Amino acid sequence: QPTRRIAIDGPAGTGKSTLARTLARRIGGAYLDTGAMYRVATLQVLRAGIDPDDADAVIAATSDLPLEVGTDAGAERILLGAEDVSEEIRTAQVTANVSAVSAVPQVRENMVELQRRLAAGGGTVVLEGRDIGTVVLPDAEVKIYLTASPEVRAQRRTDQDRSAGRDADYDEVLAAVIERDRKDSTRAASPLRPAEDAVVIDTSDLTLEAVLDRLIALAVGTD
Ligand code: C5P
């Protein structure tokens, strides 16, 4: 099977996770949610009572993380040791602290190494994150950068949280979205930005179905 690595980057609330997962399923590829990996590291830091801004302590607490991420699109489970933390990594507390943890260069190096290993199996693989096209897989066969206005993204996140049974207030979510964008795109190590050769898609006024059609065309090479 030929290697086809599809890098999907962009900020939160663009529909990125749903799209990447659905794309992987539709084209029969593996799927890796790299944000989930940074979230597990953050959960570990919070559980250990470590200040997420204390880089040395964060590195010490996460360097041998017993992290396992499923790559079966739609059924992926995220394990920390034997514990399934797939739900707990989505809490507002983890979300509020993940940018600090993911800004630590040594944490990123460890994660990137693991991500490259998971992507190296051959065949079709969809990796989703912030720095896939720029850092993790700079020679990916397909690079896509999804974006949308902060307001649209905050509304989508609010809806998503509520339908998953989590409390969500639109204004708070919007403030958190803007703050996380700022931190992710201004950090020194691998800031969020489109790769020069990425196809940029603004999803603000597009339905998920319309974006998905575009992604499938790009992924299979007919666009
Ligand atoms: O995509 P998700 O919202 O789960 O990502 C959580 C956080 O993990 C992002 O806000 C970002 O700080 C970090 N992240 C990253 N690099 C990636 C994926 C996620 O820095 N490749």
From TrEMBL:
Catalytically driven reaction(s): CMP + ATP = CDP + ADP; dCMP + ATP = dCDP + ADP
Domain spans labelled Cytidylate kinase: 6-218
Gene3D superfamilies: P-loop containing nucleotide triphosphate hydrolases (3.40.50.300)
Keywords per UniProt: ATP-binding, Cytoplasm, Kinase, Nucleotide-binding, Transferase
Residues holding ATP: 10-18
Keyword set includes NADP: no
Compartment list: Cytoplasm
Top-level division of the source organism's lineage: Bacteria
InterPro entries assigned to the protein according to its UniProt record, in alphabetical order: Cytidylate_kin (IPR003136), Cytidylate_kinase_dom (IPR011994), P-loop_NTPase (IPR027417)
EC number(s) reported in the record: 2.7.4.25
Gene Ontology MF: a single term: kinase activity
Family stated for the protein in its record: Belongs to the cytidylate kinase family. Type 1 subfamily.
PANTHER family recorded: CYTIDYLATE KINASE, CYTIDYLATE KINASE/PANTOATE-BETA-ALANINE LIGASE
Name of the protein described by the UniProt record: Cytidylate kinase
